[in-house]
Amino acid sequence: MEILRPQLIRIDGRIYRKNLIQEKTYQHEEDDEDFYQGFMECSEEPCDTYGVVQTQQGFRCTVKAPSLLYKHIVGKRGDTRKKLEVETKTSISIPKPGQDGEIVITGQHRSGVISARTRIDVLLLTFRRKQPSTHFLSFFLNEVEVQERFLKFQEEVLEKCSMDDGVDSTIFQNPKKLHLTIGMLVLLSEQEIQQTCEMLQQCKEDFIDGISGGKPLEVEMSGIEYMNDDPGMVDVLYAKVHMKDGSNRLQELVDRVLERFQASGLIVKDWNSVKLHATVMNTLFRKDPNAEGRYNLYTADGKYIFKERESFDGRNILKQFENFYFGTLKLNSLHISQRFTVDSFGNYASCGHVDFS
């Protein structure tokens, strides 16, 4: 990354730059205190949005955060909190592990409290980015017609292309789990799930109803494409999804939802647009039928896992099934789906949704 173009972090509508000169690469939880040493350099002028209040003892500010992230503010042996307190001349109270509550910052000077709050916010965001995704925004694509056509696709591919390297029945998607992903979410508490539900409802009121006209969006799944650069070594093959009337309404809708959730910090990946696709073949399924594509990179406790992939030769499949028709669907609801779960229909369990009609 260029020194003159440092990485930027957005928090509550404000933008901070990371200090690239002193920053150290985060490797393990034990290195939290090393990471903190010069982890960022930012503007610390007064910020009214922090809600700093004056008390008889000085100034006070609270920070809401999932209890799972408290340990990153405390640091190994409490070193991170101690450094924050010394450098900002504040006192920072953090709930005990496993207990819900608020981080409370107190100090004699308002600027010090604001500085501590700013640094805590950046730490929270940084370590949130390292958590495995827990949920995702999605459309279900598992209508009966599409499932039947998908099984037909699988049958014909195995009949005509099973002799191609790496092609076998284990790498096909479960037809009950066909879906279109808008973005991955890291929701670490029931409060954050509720916040996501409320934001999705606000999206419906602000623009979803206007784009959809209060009616389901009629789309087609038709044609296949691959993710990587070499059709002879494919890891993910997907079906393309587009509006049946040829309009751009679905793309507009999902891009605006993505933008809203990125601005809130609930989706932390910096993508400008959603790729409309439904995974139909994935080499991760070969060893783990419950794997979840390129997002399945971390265990539940946040440890990175390496999944060896055996790519497949997709050239014949792409040639013979380039325009395969999977069917027409009516997208009438947008869901907050939970990873590693299954509902009574065999799809991902939904923690909340909004309907278009």
Structure, explained:
This protein is an alpha+beta fold and 357 residues long. It folds into 2 domains: 47-130, K Homology domain, type 1 (Ribosomal Protein S8, Chain: A, domain 1, 2-Layer Sandwich), CATH 3.30.1370; 135-355, Alpha-Beta Complex (Cyclic Phosphodiesterase, Chain: A), CATH 3.90.1140. The chain is 29% helix and 24% strand. The protein contains 8 helices and 14 strands. The strands form 4 sheets. It has a 4-stranded antiparallel beta sheet, with helices on one face. Strand 1 and strand 2 form a beta hairpin. Residues 20-31, 38-46 and 294-302 have low confidence and may be disordered.
What's the gist of this structure?
This protein is an alpha+beta fold.
Number of extended strands: 14
The side-by-side strand order for the widest beta sheet comes to: 3-4-6-5
Overall pLDDT score? 85
The arrangement of helices and strands along the chain is EEHEEHHEEHEHEHEEHEHEEE
CATH architecture of the largest domain: Alpha-Beta Complex
Q: Based on Cα principal axes, name the global outline.
A: elongated
Distance between the termini: 46 Å
CATH fold description of the largest domain? Cyclic Phosphodiesterase, Chain: A
Q: Please, how many helices?
A: 8
Helix/strand-derived category reads alpha+beta
Helix content, binned percent: 25-40%
